[in-house]
Amino acid sequence: MSSSVYVAPLHLAELDWARSATFSRGVPEQLPAPVPLPLVVDVLAALTDAKCHGTPWFEVRDLAARLPTCPDPATCKGLDLGEVSFHAEGDAVLRAGTPVETVSFRKPSGRAVLHAACALTVVAGPVFVFDDSAARVFVVQPGTRPEDIASQWPW
């Protein structure tokens, strides 16, 4: 597995770059129309709803909700996102209403990233997932369930 995996709204993708990846799935001919970026509070809710957990490498100034930590490492079912970062324009101080451009996961479980990517489509629309080597790009559409694409998932 790559050291880091990133998830971003598809309308932010560079199509030529995405198509040049060694492995790509679902990269469209044209980008979809831009949609509003998901807010910090919505991204946290989506990750929590997906039953994912991880170590937050971010601080949200005006929000008590946190990313859950692993409830029991001895019985973890592989939904650990590793070290989680939220990236916003200008890397501004994060607040509940800050729009999130990209979510990154350092040393995640591949299964966790799959679940997170599917959950994030609810708040971000179609997303593209890529690794730090830029060798793999995978587009996930809204309504996709993890079990629908698990056999094709490269992480």
In short, what is this structure?
The chain has 155 residues and is an alpha/beta fold. The chain has helices spanning 15-19, 40-49, 110-124, 146-149; strands at 4-9, 23-25, 53-56, 80-87, 102-106, 127-131, 136-140.
Total number of strands = 7
Largest β sheet strand count, sense and barrel closure: 7 strands, mixed
Continuous helix count = 4
Strand order of the largest sheet: 2-7-6-1-5-4-3
- Mean of pLDDT: 92
Structural class: alpha/beta
User: Number of domains in the coordinates?
Assistant: 1
Q: Please state the overall shape, judged from the principal axes of the Cα atoms.
A: globular
Radius of gyration: 15 Å
The low-pLDDT segments are none
End-to-end C-alpha gap: 6 Å
Portion of residues in beta strands equals 15-25%
Oligomer: single chain
Give the SSE map:
Layout: E1 4-9, H1 15-19, E2 23-25, H2 40-49, E3 53-56, E4 80-87, E5 102-106, H3 110-124, E6 127-131, E7 136-140, H4 146-149
Parallel strand pairs: 2-7, 3-4
Antiparallel strand pairs: 1-5, 1-6, 4-5, 6-7
Task: Identify the notable features of this structure and list them briefly.
155 residues; alpha/beta; 22% helix; single chain; 7 strands
Q: Could you walk me through the main structural features you see in this protein, from its secondary elements to its overall organization?
A:
With 155 residues, the chain is α/β, with parallel strands linked by helices. It has one domain. The protein is built from four helices and seven strands. Strands 2-7-6-1-5-4-3 form a seven-stranded mixed beta sheet, with helices on one face. The longest helix has 15 residues. The radius of gyration is 15 Å and the shape is globular.
